[in-house]
Amino acid sequence: MHSDPTGTDTPAAAVRVRPATGGDADFLAEVLLQAFNWDGPRFTLAEILRTPHFAHYVTGWPRVGDFGVVAEDDAGRPIGAAWARTFPADAPGYGHIAPEVPELTIGVLPGHRGLGVGSALLDALVDMAAGSSVDRLSLSVEDGNPAARLYTDRGFRPVGREGESDTMVLRLSGSPAS
Q1: How far apart are CA 51 and CA 117, in angstroms?
Q2: Exposed, middle or buried: residue 22 (CB in 10 Å: 0-12, 13-18, 19+)?
Q3: Which of 26, 43, 23 is nearest to 34 (CA)?
Q4: Tell me: the pLDDT tens digits for 149-160?
Q5: Which of 9, 35, 58, 124 has a Cα at 20 to 30 A from 113?
Q6: What does the domain layout of the chain look like in residue ranges?
């Protein structure tokens, strides 16, 4: 079990997952930074927010069609988030497969990883997508990222490769096979 900076542990059982709102925009940016820096510091939040190809994951949250969830610890502090949004073909995300397929972003704050928070977030986001008109979700995962196993375990399958990252897709139940 990992400890957070206050020295308290956050088991998955103590995690509450709620829908993300417009008030979560700053926290989503913080989580985006964690997602980009999954293997150590590579970017600052300022760099991410001034780079359009990175910032478009959070800019203007929420836009029409965006959906997401936030995990909170037992004290109501946000500790992770997962969200999805679509991107046009002329400004794709890293896991882009089509303009109508939302791309997933997920991250958990240090000190809360490896405790099931990411699983709870991903499951809640997939449930949210399945309850809408979304038939697929996509994402990009870099080689070596331990989250790749979570995605594979939840049914995401590789459909492409860009550099040192796989683009993965989850076909939601009831959607036609392609």
Answers
A1: 28
A2: exposed
A3: 43
A4: 999 999 999 999
A5: 58
A6: 12-134
pLDDT digits (tens, 9 = 90+) for 29-44: 999 999 999 888 999 9
Q: How far is CA 86 from the centre of its chain?
A: 13
Amino acid residing at 171: R
Helix (H, G, I), strand (E, B) or coil at 78: strand
Rounded to whole angstroms, how far apart are CA atoms 133 and 141? 25
Contact call for residues 117 and 15 (beta carbons, < 8 A): yes
Show the tokens assigned to 5.
Answer: 């900076």
- The reported pTM is 0.88
DSSP for 145-171 reads: -THHHHHHHTT-EEEEEETTEEEEEEE
Tokens 């500790």: give the residue: 79
Write down the CATH number for the domain with range 12-134: 3.40.630.30
CB neighbour class for 165 (10 Å; exposed up to 12, middle 13-18, buried from 19): middle
